[in-house]
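Hi again,

Forgot to attach this to my earlier email, sorry! This is the prediction with 9G3 bound. I've pasted everything inline since the attachment limit keeps bouncing my files.
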Amino acid sequence: MRQSQLFLPTLREAPSEAEAVSHQLMLRAGLIRQLAAGIYTYLPLGRRVLRKLEQIVREEMDRAGAQEVLMPAMQPAELWRQSGRYDIYGPELVRLRDRHNREFALGPTHEEVITSLVRGEVSSYRQLPLTLYQIQTKFRDEKRPRYGLLRGREFMMKDAYSFDESWEGLHRSYMEMYEAYNRIFTRCGLRYRAVEADAGSIGGEGGTHEFMALADIGEDTVAACDCCRYAANLEKAEYGRELKEASGQQPCVAELERLYTPGMKKIDELAPYLKLEAKAFIKTLIYMADGKPTAVLVRGDHEVNEIKVKNALSANVLELADHETTERVTGAPVGFAGPLGLSVPLLADDALMVMKSGIAGANETDYHYGGIRPSVHLSHAITGDFRNAAAGDKCPRCEQGRLTFYRGIEVGHVFKLGTKYSETLNAGFLNASGEERPYIMGCYGIGVSRLLSAVLEQHYDSNGIVWPDEMAPYRVHVIPVSAKDQTQRDLAVHIAARLSEAGVETLLDDREERPGVKFKDADLIGIPLRIVVGKHAAEGMVELKRRNEAVAVTVHLENAISIACEK
Ligand code: 9G3
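Structure tokens for the complex follow:
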């Protein structure tokens, strides 16, 4: 491809609204342009890379025995009503009416569609197992689309669905997909962890795994053991129980002593003021669980895990109470809320209940109580695991290692659905004994466009993108140094022609630009191998440089061509 013809609008600077590195690089390297918030056009270079990604996904899905289909984006609302999901999803589900005023949704995912398709065609156990997949545009009207393709409103997803006659069959289909995901992310050159996204391990009923690309921009937190392979989304991470009281000094205050703490609302103000660590405090948070005020108590250095609280209360909606509700329930402003004397249910985390004594708000402005002994003063509380795992906690699996935290970008998510959709959509088959049975299903997603951003978050340097070989838009970048020197231009054209004939994807920088501009652009778009045709062109000598190496070597053009043709 001649770069003078290529629609490649590079930018010197990234627009200020691009915060994520991958977003900045995609705009500067002319991969995408925004049409509207969370909605992007892929320019030629971006389309080439996205296609490379799709191809890796396709090859591994096919290798795993899945078959590619392509489903519509327009989905009849009736299907979503049958599955009971039409009213669960709010503004995130893009809804429209056709010319006959019939209701549709633009597909955010395709469980209903694929199940209704298979329902009509697969009626015997002999036709199972069956795994179908597609690579297709999804629509989710995100409240806050951001970071370019990392969180878009229209994005490319590979979604696969497996149909089995039994749970054992599902475990096999699930493992096939799990291993295919490992191959895909490895081929993309991605640093990632497969994390347990809920307590069940891969063998348990239900259960899901998320594939997290390690990147500081990631919105998820992964708790991983520094000793065994345990890793979990922080939302669901467990930890080894510290059976004894946390070590550290005991606050030297009398039982239930009132402490004057003027204006001290936060533990990180109180702790230095009282010369104590955060773990000596009791944090009291007032939540509304399905509209009912509930106090949740955790140790001062821990965070409430709202999913665990929600599950413990079997609440549909759980949210922090607003300030006036907190004041009404506790009689004091937020920073002075405490557990004593409350008339609402108390949930106390296990780690708090083993404290010998703690300090908490006195439910009175500017006052705290010291010397609270949870086993005595909070004996009426509902106790349980209500906190997030914390860095340094014991590993819940091997009990030797300690948990460390990473930020992650969820690029893949695999689920054991069981009969969740086959029952509501009345979709099943006749088993060997002629009995009606619902399909046992799994579903498997990869955010293909998000994966592109995740790879970029891990593959750049101060000069721009450094593509992994399998993802690069071109394999070789041929650059004549002087646009004026006919010898250099001719040799560059010759080399590019030889490589193209050999089937090597090649970009020839034939622009009338100064060398500095050419090399800056070459570094920015990050093609893995560069052949520079400079002052030694007359002797047939060229310079070879890999994008991820600093040093360049001078070789004869025939050597350069054979190196570039190596698979
Ligand atoms: C919706 C909307 C947003 C959604 C969903 C439905 C996420 C929804 C979960 C999944 C599960 C799996 C198959 C591929 C892998 C993920 N956001 N999910 O169901 F209506 Cl607006 O999509 N689906």
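The mean pLDDT is 93. The radius of gyration is 29 Å.

That should be everything now.

G.
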